[in-house]
From TrEMBL:
Gene Ontology MF annotations: pyrophosphatase activity
Residue ranges annotated for the Ppx/GppA phosphatase N-terminal domain, each copy included: 24-272
Organism domain of life: Bacteria
SUPFAM superfamilies: Actin-like ATPase domain
InterPro entries: ATPase_NBD (IPR043129), GppA/Ppx_hydrolase (IPR050273), Ppx_GppA_N (IPR003695)
Protein name: Ppx/GppA phosphatase
The organism of origin for this protein: Nitritalea halalkaliphila LW7
Source lineage: Bacteria, Pseudomonadati, Bacteroidota, Cytophagia, Cytophagales
Length: 277
């Protein structure tokens, strides 16, 4: 069986096609195709409340390309999810309807709670009896899940994201405070809580930390060190000298600040990075 997933985010849009096989009661997943296209819908929406005509046309073309790949791989089923940029855009539903009629792909514009629930399903294999704060930083929003004794005890989505945070005026102080207060209220008290970080930016920060083979943890202090290292370069230098993708080079620093803010609120000293988004 072949499955496809499309993630329409605020900073980029991704397609993955996976082959699923079953043997002795267990499922095995093999990635057949993965594409990431840096179409930053969030920049339109967070400034003008709607997706521009230029990006609308590019988006429809991209959906046509994804649909061709889905058909060529003879996918049995697919799911397309759009998050904060399209759900906040005044013309998001209209564009989704255009794609459905002209391309044949159904786009599900999901709210923050549904987004957190989907992340929770993928995360569950990493959760044990210990307390965890899961921090998933996207371009337009940050999803938080708090676990204790293998139970999710709190979950919330905040309008704090790496693209949105490129301009500090896009995120009111009250939203930052709300995220801090939510974590402080629900995180198990007097517990050594471990954060779990997902998203492209923490994956890149973790990669830059040069971890030992088999180690999936990064300390808060090391994240701070890498943040300071990145801030020592201009955007152009981060692209040309550090070889970061152009759509990663500008958002990685504001994303690091979001992860660190969550860790501070939870008084967490380390983060587990499973390297998926």
């Amino acid at each position: 069986m072949k499955l496809a997933a499309v993630d329409i985010g605020s900073n980029a849009i991704r397609l993955q096609i996976t082959n699923v096989t079953h043997h002795d009661g267990q499922a095995t997943f093999k990635k057949l195709e993965y594409l990431r296209f840096p179409l930053r819908l969030g920049m339109d929406v967070f400034h003008h409340q709607r997706i521009s005509e230029k990006n609308r046309r590019k988006f429809v073309k991209l959906m046509k390309a994804f649909k061709l790949l889905i058909d060529l791989y003879e996918v049995d089923d697919y799911m397309v999810c759009a998050t904060s940029a399209m759900r906040e855009s005044l013309n998001g539903k209209e564009i989704a309807e255009e794609v459905k009629e002209d391309v044949g792909l159904k786009i599900n514009i999901i709210d923050g709670n549904r987004e957190a629930d989907l992340i929770n399903v993928a995360l569950w294999s990493y959760i044990d009896e210990k307390p965890y704060l899961h921090v998933d930083v996207g371009g337009g929003s940050t999803e938080l899940n708090i676990y204790h004794k293998k139970q999710k005890i709190a979950s919330k989505s905040f309008k704090i994201g790496s693209v949105r945070a490129l301009e500090s005026s896009n995120i009111p102080l009250s939203v930052w405070k709300g995220m801090h207060d939510f974590i402080a209220k629900h995180a198990p008290q007097k517990a050594n809580i471990t954060c779990i970080g997902t998203g492209g930016n923490i994956n890149k920060i973790f990669e830059m930390s040069k971890p030992r083979k088999g180690n999936r943890y990064i300390s808060k202090d090391r994240i701070i060190e890498i943040q300071a290292f990145l801030e020592g370069y201009t955007y152009e230098e981060r692209v040309n000298k550090l070889n970061l993708n152009p759509d990663r080079a500008d958002v990685i620093i504001p994303a690091s600040k979001i992860y660190l803010a969550a860790m501070t609120a939870a008084t967490s000293k380390r983060m587990f990075v499973p390297m998926w988004g």
